[in-house]
Structures are given as C-alpha cells and as structure tokens.
Amino acid sequence: MGISGATVLTWSHNISSSLGLAPRFSTPEGRRFKVWCSSDETQKENRMIISVTGATGFIGKRLVERLHAENHRVHVLTRSKSKAEQIFPAKDFPGIKIADESEWKECIHGSTGVVNLAGMPISTRWSSEIKKEIKESRIRVTSKVVECINSAPDDIRPKVLVSATAVGYYGTSETKVFDEQSPSGKDYLAEVCREWESTAHKVNGDVRLALIRIGVVLGKDGGALAKMVPLFMVFAGGPLGSGKQWFSWIHLDDIVNLVYEALSNPSYKGVINGTAPNPVRLAELCEQLGNVVGRPSWLPVPDFALKAVLGEGASVVLEGQKVLPAKAKELGFPFKYRYVKDALKAILS
C-alpha cells in the first residue's frame, strides 16, 4: 500500500509531539529531515515578567512598549498612577499592571527582572533645592527597589536588576577619553552618579546587576534634542557654546535595545556605558543637525541662551565628555545607529 508524503508528515508530527521530540519527516524519495516547531510552552518559558520604575519617562515609555510588543508581562512602578494610566491606557496596553508605591513590593516579588530608570530630569534650571531633589529622587527610588528585591524569598527574587546611571559619573573634559574603567569625576553630577550606583550595589549578591551609564539620548518628542532644536533654529544653526565640547550620545532605540539585552543576556553585568561608538564634538553635531533640518551653521548659540533654558543643567551640554562603550562593543552589542548623522536623519527627516 502506498503512503503519501502528507500522511508521513502528519503521523510523524503526532508521535514526536507526544514524546516531546523534534519531528523527523520523510519525503516520498526517502530523504529525511528535521523541523523544529515552536510551541506555546516554549514562548511561555521565554516570557519575562519585568517591573519598571521611570516607565513614564523618555526611555521608560519606549522600553515598556518594546516589552509589551514582545508579549512580556510588564509592571509599571509609579508614584503617579493617573499619569501612568494616561500614558499606558488599558485598551492599548492590555495586561500591563500599573502599581503605586504601596504595590511595588508585591510586583517585584516574582518578577524575572527589574529596570530602574526613575529620577528627576537634570535638564532643568538648578537651584540648591532642585540639586538636592535630583540626587535624592535617584537614591530614594533605587533604595526602595533594592529593599524590595532583597526582601523577596529566594524562589521569587528577581534574577537581574538593570539600573540606570549616567556618563556624568566621569566628570567633564575636552581632552580625556573615558570608558568603564575610568575613575569618577569630582563635580556635582559625578557625586550623584557615585551615590546612585553605590545604592544599586546593595542588591542581593545572587542578583545580576547591570549599571547602564547613559549618555545624551536622542529621539523624537523628548530628551535633550527636543530642547536644543528650537534654540538651534532661532540662532541659525550654529554650535552651542564653544563647539569643542564632546557630545556622547545614543539613539533612543539603541539605549532601549541595550537595556532589553541586559535583561535577557547573562553576559551583561557590571558597568556598561550606554553611548554610541562615535561621540562627536558639539560643533559637528550642530553641523549635521543643520544639514538635516536645512539650516545654515554660522551663528553660534551663546552660552547664556542655553543657560536661560537649562540653568546650571546646561553644563551637561556645555562641558561634556568623550565616553566610549567599550563593554558593549566587547559583548558584541549591535548598535543600530553608530554615527550621529544617521541618528539625526532617522529622528528628524
């Protein structure tokens, strides 16, 4: 009696599935081959449960969107439930849990991993009170996250904590080059980053800790670029300040991908610089920006104009540092945007 190829495929698949084996198929000519089939069980095994602080911010929002799109369970840890519910409406983000502070511990216990992005923005006018809040907002939330992780029984403790910090850790310089092995600077932002990281290091030793020192994030509708472009346009597209400052940047997509990789890849641990491989001087950034938006680059934006918008926070842009992502390159992280010209085109075109 003849057996058709379709019959062989069906029978083999049924037997293999019941045994949990990869099905082996035969063709009518007798050639044999294997087909690996994904199943709902496999997808469930790969599904993460991630708790995120700072989820309503520039980076956090995009990260939550990415996690949700890939069917991971997300807990948005927030201090403003109403704001989070506006940003992540249930009709667009079914299954996302939005939790106020009283629920953080419950959410963190049983999570696969935690991402800590919370902190008051530094690109604002600084006063002594604001500077105190910039530091305390980071220390307070990080301390709470660490406390919640450490209090979890072993079987429901998160396996990984990805905690943001910043390239401000290195201080500023027009001549030095910084990587993950470089010492900390001596200015205010370096002090903030040291205490921020020190707090994260108090997490249980069994939890993999990845500290992402983030550069200036470039993306649509937020971040430094949203504040720089209007100034740039008003002053005919010239450099900001002297133009000699280093600008260590990263595209929003790349920083989100880096955080995502740190959640899922056990090789990502310790300090990792979240910057693109090719930092630029600010004059080059402005020239490329001018080319993209069709503005001449001849009239510099004076320091006072930037300080009028950012206050003392303008130091992040006006002083700068050259930071290289040595660890990310060593790990083989695939940067989508390696050059600022390509990043700006993608954002502004």
TrEMBL record:
Residues 301-347 form the DUF1731 domain. Transmembrane segments: none annotated. This is Epimerase family protein SDR39U1 homolog, chloroplastic. The lineage of its organism: Eukaryota, Viridiplantae, Streptophyta, Embryophyta, Tracheophyta. Residues 50-267 form the NAD-dependent epimerase/dehydratase domain. It comes from Acacia crassicarpa (northern wattle).
